[in-house]
Amino acid sequence: MSWGHPRPETGGAPVRRTFVVEADGGSRGNPGPAGYGAVVRDAASGQTLRETAEFLGHATNNVAEYRGLLAGLRAAHELDPHAAVLVRMDSKLVVEQMSGRWKIKHPDMRPLALEAGSVFPPQAVTYEWIPRAENKHADRLANEAMDAGKRGVSWQPGASTAELDTAGAAPATAGAGSAGAESADTDSADAGSADPGPTTSADPGPTAPAVRVGWGPDMGTPTTFVLLRHGETVLTPEKRFSGSGGSDPELSAVGRRQAAAVADTLAARGTIEAVVASPLRRCQETAAAVAGRLGLSVRTEDGLRETDFGAWEGLTFAQVRERHPEDLQAWLGSADVSPTGGGESFDAVARRVARSRDQLLARYAGRTVLVVSHVTPVKTLVRLALGAPVQSLFRMELAAASLTAVAYYADGNASLRLLNDTAHLR
Protein backbone atom coordinates (compact mmCIF):
# COMPACT_ATOMS: atom_id res chain seq x y z
CA MET A 1 0.00 0.00 0.00
CA SER A 2 1.41 3.39 -1.01
CA TRP A 3 0.45 6.73 0.51
CA GLY A 4 2.12 8.74 -2.25
CA HIS A 5 -0.15 8.27 -5.28
CA PRO A 6 -1.51 11.35 -7.14
CA ARG A 7 -4.38 13.36 -5.80
CA PRO A 8 -7.80 11.78 -6.47
CA GLU A 9 -10.53 13.49 -8.46
CA THR A 10 -12.65 14.23 -5.42
CA GLY A 11 -11.45 16.05 -2.36
CA GLY A 12 -12.58 15.59 1.20
CA ALA A 13 -13.68 18.28 3.59
CA PRO A 14 -11.22 21.18 3.92
CA VAL A 15 -9.06 22.07 6.87
CA ARG A 16 -8.25 25.57 7.97
CA ARG A 17 -5.54 27.31 6.00
CA THR A 18 -2.30 27.57 7.94
CA PHE A 19 0.15 30.48 7.88
CA VAL A 20 3.66 30.82 9.23
CA VAL A 21 4.44 34.29 10.60
CA GLU A 22 8.08 35.22 11.19
CA ALA A 23 8.66 38.53 12.95
CA ASP A 24 11.57 40.51 14.33
CA GLY A 25 12.38 43.94 15.68
CA GLY A 26 15.47 45.87 16.64
CA SER A 27 16.74 49.09 18.17
CA ARG A 28 20.07 50.72 17.39
CA GLY A 29 20.94 51.91 20.85
CA ASN A 30 18.25 50.16 22.90
CA PRO A 31 16.48 52.41 23.31
CA GLY A 32 17.24 54.11 20.04
CA PRO A 33 16.10 54.26 16.41
CA ALA A 34 13.95 51.16 16.05
CA GLY A 35 12.01 49.19 13.46
CA TYR A 36 10.33 45.89 12.85
CA GLY A 37 9.81 43.42 10.02
CA ALA A 38 7.41 40.52 9.51
CA VAL A 39 6.72 38.00 6.78
CA VAL A 40 3.68 35.75 6.26
CA ARG A 41 4.15 32.47 4.44
CA ASP A 42 1.81 29.72 3.34
CA ALA A 43 2.66 26.76 5.57
CA ALA A 44 2.04 24.13 2.89
CA SER A 45 3.99 25.70 0.01
CA GLY A 46 6.40 28.01 1.81
CA GLN A 47 5.41 30.84 -0.53
CA THR A 48 5.81 34.38 0.80
CA LEU A 49 2.36 35.96 0.90
CA ARG A 50 3.01 39.27 2.62
CA GLU A 51 5.93 41.39 3.87
CA THR A 52 5.57 44.31 6.23
CA ALA A 53 8.04 46.63 7.98
CA GLU A 54 8.04 50.02 9.68
CA PHE A 55 10.40 52.52 11.29
CA LEU A 56 9.19 53.20 14.83
CA GLY A 57 11.29 56.13 15.90
CA HIS A 58 12.80 55.87 19.39
CA ALA A 59 11.99 52.51 21.09
CA THR A 60 13.53 49.44 22.74
CA ASN A 61 14.33 46.10 21.11
CA ASN A 62 11.51 44.34 22.93
CA VAL A 63 8.89 46.90 21.99
CA ALA A 64 10.03 46.63 18.37
CA GLU A 65 9.76 42.84 18.55
CA TYR A 66 6.20 43.05 19.86
CA ARG A 67 5.32 45.57 17.16
CA GLY A 68 6.68 43.15 14.56
CA LEU A 69 4.59 40.34 15.99
CA LEU A 70 1.47 42.49 15.96
CA ALA A 71 2.06 43.56 12.36
CA GLY A 72 2.66 39.98 11.22
CA LEU A 73 -0.54 38.72 12.87
CA ARG A 74 -2.55 41.58 11.37
CA ALA A 75 -1.16 40.81 7.91
CA ALA A 76 -2.09 37.14 8.31
CA HIS A 77 -5.57 38.11 9.53
CA GLU A 78 -6.11 40.27 6.45
CA LEU A 79 -5.28 37.26 4.27
CA ASP A 80 -7.59 34.86 6.13
CA PRO A 81 -9.19 35.65 9.51
CA HIS A 82 -10.04 31.96 10.04
CA ALA A 83 -6.53 30.60 9.49
CA ALA A 84 -4.33 28.76 11.96
CA VAL A 85 -1.02 30.53 12.58
CA LEU A 86 2.42 29.33 13.63
CA VAL A 87 4.48 32.29 14.88
CA ARG A 88 8.24 31.78 14.74
CA MET A 89 10.51 34.33 16.42
CA ASP A 90 14.06 34.44 17.77
CA SER A 91 12.92 36.43 20.81
CA LYS A 92 12.65 34.00 23.72
CA LEU A 93 10.94 36.71 25.74
CA VAL A 94 8.10 37.28 23.29
CA VAL A 95 7.57 33.57 22.61
CA GLU A 96 7.43 32.66 26.31
CA GLN A 97 5.21 35.58 27.26
CA MET A 98 2.75 35.09 24.40
CA SER A 99 2.67 31.35 25.16
CA GLY A 100 1.58 32.24 28.69
CA ARG A 101 4.60 30.79 30.47
CA TRP A 102 6.13 34.11 31.55
CA LYS A 103 4.38 37.12 33.03
CA ILE A 104 4.38 40.49 31.28
CA LYS A 105 5.19 43.28 33.71
CA HIS A 106 6.79 45.92 31.49
CA PRO A 107 4.21 48.72 30.96
CA ASP A 108 5.26 49.30 27.33
CA MET A 109 4.84 45.65 26.36
CA ARG A 110 1.68 44.69 28.21
CA PRO A 111 -0.77 46.56 25.92
CA LEU A 112 1.07 45.35 22.82
CA ALA A 113 0.83 41.75 24.02
CA LEU A 114 -2.88 42.13 24.74
CA GLU A 115 -3.44 43.61 21.30
CA ALA A 116 -1.45 40.84 19.61
CA GLY A 117 -3.42 38.22 21.53
CA SER A 118 -6.71 39.63 20.25
CA VAL A 119 -5.98 39.47 16.51
CA PHE A 120 -6.79 35.74 16.28
CA PRO A 121 -8.49 33.49 18.83
CA PRO A 122 -5.70 32.23 21.13
CA GLN A 123 -6.43 28.63 20.14
CA ALA A 124 -5.57 29.46 16.52
CA VAL A 125 -2.03 30.69 17.23
CA THR A 126 1.03 28.69 18.27
CA TYR A 127 4.41 30.20 19.17
CA GLU A 128 7.81 28.68 18.49
CA TRP A 129 11.29 29.98 19.29
CA ILE A 130 13.83 29.67 16.45
CA PRO A 131 17.54 30.52 16.20
CA ARG A 132 18.29 33.93 14.77
CA ALA A 133 19.77 32.35 11.65
CA GLU A 134 16.32 30.99 10.78
CA ASN A 135 14.70 34.41 11.14
CA LYS A 136 16.90 36.33 8.70
CA HIS A 137 14.06 37.36 6.34
CA ALA A 138 12.21 39.25 9.09
CA ASP A 139 15.53 40.54 10.45
CA ARG A 140 16.40 41.98 7.05
CA LEU A 141 13.01 43.67 6.76
CA ALA A 142 13.48 45.31 10.16
CA ASN A 143 16.90 46.61 9.15
CA GLU A 144 15.47 47.94 5.89
CA ALA A 145 12.87 49.85 7.91
CA MET A 146 15.52 51.32 10.22
CA ASP A 147 17.69 52.28 7.24
CA ALA A 148 14.71 53.99 5.61
CA GLY A 149 13.97 55.88 8.82
CA LYS A 150 17.57 57.07 8.98
CA ARG A 151 17.11 58.52 5.48
CA GLY A 152 13.88 60.21 6.54
CA VAL A 153 11.65 58.07 4.30
CA SER A 154 9.13 55.29 4.85
CA TRP A 155 9.85 51.65 4.06
CA GLN A 156 8.27 50.64 0.75
CA PRO A 157 7.47 46.99 -0.03
CA GLY A 158 8.16 47.50 -3.71
CA ALA A 159 11.72 48.56 -2.94
CA SER A 160 12.48 45.71 -0.54
CA THR A 161 15.14 43.17 -1.44
CA ALA A 162 14.84 41.22 1.82
CA GLU A 163 13.56 38.01 0.26
CA LEU A 164 16.22 38.03 -2.44
CA ASP A 165 18.99 39.00 -0.03
CA THR A 166 18.20 36.17 2.40
CA ALA A 167 17.29 33.35 0.00
CA GLY A 168 19.87 30.63 0.60
CA ALA A 169 22.16 33.07 2.39
CA ALA A 170 24.39 32.22 5.34
CA PRO A 171 23.14 33.26 8.78
CA ALA A 172 23.11 37.03 9.12
CA THR A 173 25.77 38.62 11.26
CA ALA A 174 25.04 42.13 12.44
CA GLY A 175 26.49 44.44 14.98
CA ALA A 176 25.01 45.33 18.33
CA GLY A 177 21.61 46.88 18.16
CA SER A 178 20.52 45.30 14.89
CA ALA A 179 17.23 43.47 14.58
CA GLY A 180 17.30 40.08 16.25
CA ALA A 181 19.79 41.04 18.93
CA GLU A 182 18.69 40.11 22.43
CA SER A 183 19.10 43.02 24.79
CA ALA A 184 19.23 43.99 28.43
CA ASP A 185 15.61 45.15 28.15
CA THR A 186 14.23 41.64 28.59
CA ASP A 187 11.82 42.12 31.44
CA SER A 188 13.98 39.46 33.11
CA ALA A 189 12.18 39.64 36.43
CA ASP A 190 9.36 37.83 34.68
CA ALA A 191 11.43 34.95 33.38
CA GLY A 192 10.11 31.63 34.55
CA SER A 193 7.04 33.09 36.24
CA ALA A 194 4.20 30.94 35.01
CA ASP A 195 0.93 32.83 34.80
CA PRO A 196 -0.88 31.72 31.64
CA GLY A 197 -4.24 33.18 32.64
CA PRO A 198 -7.61 32.02 31.33
CA THR A 199 -8.47 31.49 27.71
CA THR A 200 -11.94 32.80 27.08
CA SER A 201 -12.23 33.97 23.48
CA ALA A 202 -14.36 32.21 20.92
CA ASP A 203 -12.93 29.21 19.13
CA PRO A 204 -13.86 28.99 15.43
CA GLY A 205 -13.91 25.21 15.79
CA PRO A 206 -12.41 22.47 13.68
CA THR A 207 -14.62 22.89 10.63
CA ALA A 208 -14.20 25.08 7.55
CA PRO A 209 -16.30 26.20 4.57
CA ALA A 210 -16.82 23.77 1.74
CA VAL A 211 -14.57 24.02 -1.31
CA ARG A 212 -14.93 22.98 -4.91
CA VAL A 213 -14.89 19.23 -5.53
CA GLY A 214 -13.55 17.67 -8.71
CA TRP A 215 -10.43 17.69 -10.86
CA GLY A 216 -8.14 20.57 -10.05
CA PRO A 217 -4.60 21.79 -10.55
CA ASP A 218 -1.68 19.88 -9.08
CA MET A 219 -1.35 21.01 -5.46
CA GLY A 220 2.10 19.53 -5.10
CA THR A 221 3.18 17.00 -2.50
CA PRO A 222 0.55 16.62 0.23
CA THR A 223 1.29 16.36 3.92
CA THR A 224 0.40 12.80 4.88
CA PHE A 225 -0.46 11.64 8.38
CA VAL A 226 -0.04 7.90 8.87
CA LEU A 227 -2.23 7.40 11.93
CA LEU A 228 -1.23 4.51 14.17
CA ARG A 229 -3.35 3.46 17.09
CA HIS A 230 -1.15 2.25 19.95
CA GLY A 231 -0.69 -1.45 20.68
CA GLU A 232 -2.78 -3.33 23.21
CA THR A 233 -2.66 -2.82 26.97
CA VAL A 234 -4.19 -5.14 29.56
CA LEU A 235 -7.35 -3.02 29.37
CA THR A 236 -7.78 -3.25 25.58
CA PRO A 237 -9.20 -6.78 25.24
CA GLU A 238 -11.51 -6.09 28.18
CA LYS A 239 -12.92 -3.07 26.29
CA ARG A 240 -12.60 -0.75 29.24
CA PHE A 241 -12.65 3.05 29.03
CA SER A 242 -8.97 4.00 29.08
CA GLY A 243 -8.41 7.70 28.52
CA SER A 244 -6.08 10.46 29.63
CA GLY A 245 -7.57 10.65 33.13
CA GLY A 246 -6.97 7.06 34.16
CA SER A 247 -4.13 4.73 35.09
CA ASP A 248 -2.00 5.28 31.96
CA PRO A 249 -1.24 1.58 31.37
CA GLU A 250 1.83 0.33 29.53
CA LEU A 251 1.77 -2.00 26.55
CA SER A 252 1.07 -5.65 27.28
CA ALA A 253 3.21 -8.42 25.83
CA VAL A 254 0.75 -8.59 22.92
CA GLY A 255 0.99 -4.83 22.46
CA ARG A 256 4.78 -4.94 22.31
CA ARG A 257 4.63 -7.63 19.62
CA GLN A 258 2.15 -5.50 17.68
CA ALA A 259 4.45 -2.46 17.93
CA ALA A 260 7.36 -4.51 16.61
CA ALA A 261 5.25 -5.81 13.72
CA VAL A 262 4.15 -2.35 12.62
CA ALA A 263 7.74 -1.10 12.98
CA ASP A 264 8.91 -3.79 10.56
CA THR A 265 6.16 -2.92 8.09
CA LEU A 266 6.84 0.81 8.13
CA ALA A 267 10.58 0.28 7.87
CA ALA A 268 10.00 -1.84 4.76
CA ARG A 269 7.87 0.89 3.17
CA GLY A 270 10.46 3.54 3.93
CA THR A 271 8.15 6.54 3.66
CA ILE A 272 7.98 7.87 7.23
CA GLU A 273 9.96 11.10 7.75
CA ALA A 274 8.96 12.05 11.31
CA VAL A 275 7.23 10.52 14.32
CA VAL A 276 4.91 12.31 16.75
CA ALA A 277 2.95 10.74 19.58
CA SER A 278 0.48 11.26 22.39
CA PRO A 279 2.17 11.72 25.79
CA LEU A 280 0.43 8.64 27.25
CA ARG A 281 2.68 5.65 27.98
CA ARG A 282 1.09 3.20 25.53
CA CYS A 283 1.63 5.62 22.65
CA GLN A 284 5.14 6.57 23.73
CA GLU A 285 6.14 2.90 23.87
CA THR A 286 4.55 2.16 20.49
CA ALA A 287 6.18 5.21 18.92
CA ALA A 288 9.57 4.39 20.42
CA ALA A 289 9.48 0.90 18.90
CA VAL A 290 8.77 2.30 15.44
CA ALA A 291 11.08 5.30 15.69
CA GLY A 292 13.93 3.12 16.91
CA ARG A 293 13.49 0.85 13.89
CA LEU A 294 13.43 3.88 11.54
CA GLY A 295 16.29 5.78 13.18
CA LEU A 296 14.03 8.71 14.07
CA SER A 297 13.23 10.57 17.28
CA VAL A 298 9.74 10.91 18.79
CA ARG A 299 8.13 14.33 19.21
CA THR A 300 5.41 14.44 21.88
CA GLU A 301 2.17 16.27 21.02
CA ASP A 302 -0.15 16.74 23.99
CA GLY A 303 -3.20 17.38 21.82
CA LEU A 304 -3.08 13.79 20.55
CA ARG A 305 -3.93 12.29 23.95
CA GLU A 306 -7.06 10.19 24.42
CA THR A 307 -10.33 11.61 25.76
CA ASP A 308 -10.55 12.14 29.51
CA PHE A 309 -13.41 9.79 30.41
CA GLY A 310 -13.87 11.16 33.92
CA ALA A 311 -15.48 8.74 36.38
CA TRP A 312 -15.79 6.12 33.64
CA GLU A 313 -12.03 5.46 33.47
CA GLY A 314 -11.30 1.75 33.89
CA LEU A 315 -14.95 0.70 33.58
CA THR A 316 -16.54 -1.38 30.85
CA PHE A 317 -19.40 0.01 28.79
CA ALA A 318 -21.81 -2.29 30.63
CA GLN A 319 -20.60 -1.02 34.00
CA VAL A 320 -21.05 2.61 32.94
CA ARG A 321 -24.53 1.85 31.63
CA GLU A 322 -25.42 0.27 34.96
CA ARG A 323 -23.94 2.99 37.20
CA HIS A 324 -24.54 6.14 35.12
CA PRO A 325 -27.33 5.32 32.65
CA GLU A 326 -28.60 8.89 32.17
CA ASP A 327 -25.14 10.38 31.79
CA LEU A 328 -24.18 7.71 29.27
CA GLN A 329 -27.31 8.26 27.21
CA ALA A 330 -26.73 12.02 27.17
CA TRP A 331 -23.09 11.52 26.15
CA LEU A 332 -24.03 9.22 23.28
CA GLY A 333 -26.67 11.66 22.10
CA SER A 334 -24.76 14.95 22.13
CA ALA A 335 -21.21 15.92 21.21
CA ASP A 336 -21.08 18.69 23.81
CA VAL A 337 -21.87 16.46 26.82
CA SER A 338 -18.98 15.31 29.01
CA PRO A 339 -18.70 11.95 30.81
CA THR A 340 -19.62 11.72 34.49
CA GLY A 341 -17.19 13.47 36.77
CA GLY A 342 -15.89 16.19 34.48
CA GLY A 343 -14.29 14.38 31.55
CA GLU A 344 -14.10 15.69 27.97
CA SER A 345 -16.92 15.96 25.46
CA PHE A 346 -16.43 14.93 21.83
CA ASP A 347 -16.56 18.62 20.88
CA ALA A 348 -13.74 19.44 23.29
CA VAL A 349 -11.61 16.60 21.93
CA ALA A 350 -12.30 17.66 18.34
CA ARG A 351 -11.15 21.21 19.05
CA ARG A 352 -7.83 20.21 20.56
CA VAL A 353 -7.20 17.52 17.94
CA ALA A 354 -7.89 20.05 15.17
CA ARG A 355 -5.45 22.49 16.76
CA SER A 356 -2.76 19.81 16.91
CA ARG A 357 -3.51 18.83 13.31
CA ASP A 358 -3.04 22.42 12.14
CA GLN A 359 0.20 22.81 14.08
CA LEU A 360 1.58 19.56 12.66
CA LEU A 361 0.57 20.58 9.12
CA ALA A 362 2.52 23.81 9.57
CA ARG A 363 5.58 22.04 11.00
CA TYR A 364 5.72 19.10 8.57
CA ALA A 365 4.37 20.59 5.33
CA GLY A 366 4.85 18.21 2.39
CA ARG A 367 6.18 15.36 4.54
CA THR A 368 4.89 11.94 5.65
CA VAL A 369 4.47 11.81 9.41
CA LEU A 370 3.64 8.88 11.67
CA VAL A 371 1.09 10.06 14.24
CA VAL A 372 0.76 7.60 17.16
CA SER A 373 -2.46 8.22 19.05
CA HIS A 374 -5.69 6.69 20.35
CA VAL A 375 -9.13 5.65 19.15
CA THR A 376 -10.93 8.98 19.58
CA PRO A 377 -8.24 11.28 18.13
CA VAL A 378 -7.65 9.03 15.11
CA LYS A 379 -11.37 8.70 14.41
CA THR A 380 -11.75 12.45 14.87
CA LEU A 381 -9.05 13.19 12.30
CA VAL A 382 -10.80 10.87 9.85
CA ARG A 383 -14.18 12.45 10.59
CA LEU A 384 -12.85 15.98 10.04
CA ALA A 385 -11.11 14.96 6.82
CA LEU A 386 -14.37 13.57 5.46
CA GLY A 387 -16.58 16.34 6.81
CA ALA A 388 -18.65 13.64 8.48
CA PRO A 389 -21.00 14.20 11.43
CA VAL A 390 -19.94 13.33 14.95
CA GLN A 391 -22.15 10.21 14.88
CA SER A 392 -19.63 8.71 12.43
CA LEU A 393 -17.30 8.13 15.39
CA PHE A 394 -19.58 5.24 16.41
CA ARG A 395 -19.52 3.76 12.90
CA MET A 396 -15.78 3.22 12.52
CA GLU A 397 -13.81 0.20 13.72
CA LEU A 398 -10.24 0.94 14.83
CA ALA A 399 -8.21 -2.04 16.04
CA ALA A 400 -5.15 -1.82 18.26
CA ALA A 401 -1.97 -1.16 16.23
CA SER A 402 -4.03 -0.46 13.09
CA LEU A 403 -2.90 1.98 10.40
CA THR A 404 -4.98 4.78 8.86
CA ALA A 405 -3.72 7.46 6.44
CA VAL A 406 -4.98 10.93 5.55
CA ALA A 407 -3.38 13.27 2.99
CA TYR A 408 -3.76 17.06 3.31
CA TYR A 409 -3.37 19.38 0.31
CA ALA A 410 -2.34 23.02 0.01
CA ASP A 411 -5.83 24.13 -1.07
CA GLY A 412 -7.37 22.82 2.17
CA ASN A 413 -8.70 19.50 0.87
CA ALA A 414 -8.08 16.24 2.68
CA SER A 415 -8.19 12.70 1.30
CA LEU A 416 -8.65 9.49 3.30
CA ARG A 417 -6.17 6.98 1.89
CA LEU A 418 -6.44 4.06 4.33
CA LEU A 419 -8.57 3.04 7.30
CA ASN A 420 -7.96 0.40 10.02
CA ASP A 421 -5.33 -1.59 8.12
CA THR A 422 -4.20 -4.58 10.19
CA ALA A 423 -2.53 -6.68 7.49
CA HIS A 424 0.83 -6.33 9.26
CA LEU A 425 -0.60 -8.12 12.31
CA ARG A 426 -1.62 -11.25 10.44
UniProtKB/TrEMBL annotation:
InterPro entries named in the record: His_Pase_superF_clade-1 (IPR013078), His_PPase_superfam (IPR029033), PGM_Phosphatase (IPR050275), RNaseH-like_sf (IPR012337), RNaseH/PGlycerate_mutase (IPR014636), RNaseH_domain (IPR002156), RNaseH_sf (IPR036397)
UniProt xrefs under SMART domains: PGAM
Region listing for Disordered, in residue ranges: 171-217
PROSITE patterns (alphabetical): RNASE_H_1
Pfam families referenced in this protein's UniProt entry, alphabetically: His_Phos_1 (PF00300), RVT_3 (PF13456)
Limits of the RNase H type-1 domain: 15-155
Gene3D superfamilies to which the protein is assigned, alphabetical: Phosphoglycerate mutase-like, Ribonuclease H-like superfamily/Ribonuclease H
Coiled-coil region list: none
Residue ranges, compositional bias (Low complexity): 171-183, 189-198
UniProt-listed PANTHER family: BROAD-SPECIFICITY PHOSPHATASE YOR283W-RELATED, GLUCOSYL-3-PHOSPHOGLYCERATE PHOSPHATASE
Name of the protein this chain belongs to: Bifunctional RNase H/acid phosphatase
